[in-house]
Amino acid sequence: MTERYLILEDGSAYAGKAFGSLATTTGEIVANSTMNGYQEIISNQIYHNQIIVFTQSSIGNTGLDQNAYESILPSAKGVIVREYENLATDHFKRISLDKYLKQHKIPGIYDVDTREIRHHLQRRGNMKASIVDVADDHAFDQLHATVLTNQQVAQVATPKPFPNPDEGANVVVVDFGLKSGILRELSHRDCNVTVVPWDFSAAQILDLDPDGIVLSTGPGSPANLPTSVLKMITEVQSRAPLFAIGLGHELFALANGAKISQLNVEHHGSNHPIREIITNEIFFAGQEQGYAVDPKSIDHAQLFITYVDLVNGTVQGLRHRDYPAFSVQFSPDGAPGPKDSVGLFDDFMEIMARRRDNNDDRY
């Protein structure tokens, strides 16, 4: 097997064996502690320009499922694992994890102590990394010289609107790096969905006559998006029910006067208990979080906190006091899991139904 290296910005290097593409790549390195769903994680656009370190002991051992992709074209920069199995479980036994990564030019390394890498990142914080053939001075010089793009949303979001039709509530999804799990949950509820680009104006969205609006998940910092996005949110939140998720949650907070800070170490996994404040209920959900709402910056005349992470104390949910608008930091669609919070889509459906029944003059 070909030997390859994972090198980190702080000078660390980890040797392993190659699988997937043999490309040389650079990205931000993050560790994911989820124990299942490697396919959903790799194909999630939130990992655009990131090298994913899986702490689960083995991946690839359940093959790939055509119903489990979170995007058609994954944009992760690399996959690091302890062990991998080269199984194909599709109808024609053609697509294994190794072949999938080759198809999308994503390099992988296995036979690496991924839990040690995770502990290293917890100690040292966020940083860049590269997957290379030789861990020499030249490779480190190239790593240090590489500037990662801050235009992640523009690179992964749809450039044109497209429909996901049905006969139920008319929902507009603003795509900041949409994962398919959100569309699946809306489809399960018969929603007639139109997905629009991230830079659509409020007028363009409202022209579609939505019963409700979803602000999707996505990669990168909310600070990298123009203020026109915040203006759009402040205009539409008073006109139609709004449900914001992940990056959408952070943008919703910014649009209502809160501030966002970057976490010293990104949290990716489903092992943090989350508490719903009003009920005191504890549940678990998938989290892919590099940024958090500063609780001290929240204007409580406009927003109140609905969910908190019991491990790191971060704000995990907000609700507007005056408008039918709410948000969550975590992934309620449950792809790859857990499914504890999928009922939030039912809450969104109920809010839309109440608005329709009341025939409110929201437009």
UniProtKB/TrEMBL annotation:
L-glutamine binds at residues 218, 220, 247, 290-291. Its EC number is 6.3.5.5. It catalyses: hydrogencarbonate + L-glutamine + 2 ATP + H2O = carbamoyl phosphate + L-glutamate + 2 ADP + phosphate + 2 H(+); L-glutamine + H2O = L-glutamate + NH4(+). Residues 1-170 are annotated as: CPSase. The active site is at residue 333. GO terms for biological process: 'de novo' pyrimidine nucleobase biosynthetic process; 'de novo' UMP biosynthetic process; glutamine metabolic process; L-arginine biosynthetic process. Pathway: Amino-acid biosynthesis; L-arginine biosynthesis; carbamoyl phosphate from bicarbonate: step 1/1; Pyrimidine metabolism; UMP biosynthesis via de novo pathway; (S)-dihydroorotate from bicarbonate: step 1/3. Pfam families: CPSase_sm_chain, GATase. GO terms for molecular function: ATP binding; carbamoyl-phosphate synthase (glutamine-hydrolyzing) activity. Keywords: Amino-acid biosynthesis, Arginine biosynthesis, ATP-binding, Glutamine amidotransferase, Ligase, Nucleotide-binding, Pyrimidine biosynthesis. Belongs to the CarA family. Composed of two chains; the small (or glutamine) chain promotes the hydrolysis of glutamine to ammonia, which is used by the large (or ammonia) chain to synthesize carbamoyl phosphate. Tetramer of heterodimers (alpha,beta)4. Small subunit of the glutamine-dependent carbamoyl phosphate synthetase (CPSase). CPSase catalyzes the formation of carbamoyl phosphate from the ammonia moiety of glutamine, carbonate, and phosphate donated by ATP, constituting the first step of 2 biosynthetic pathways, one leading to arginine and/or urea and the other to pyrimidine nucleotides. The small subunit (glutamine amidotransferase) binds and cleaves glutamine to supply the large subunit with the substrate ammonia. This is Carbamoyl phosphate synthase small chain. It comes from Lentilactobacillus kefiri. The gene is pyrAA2.
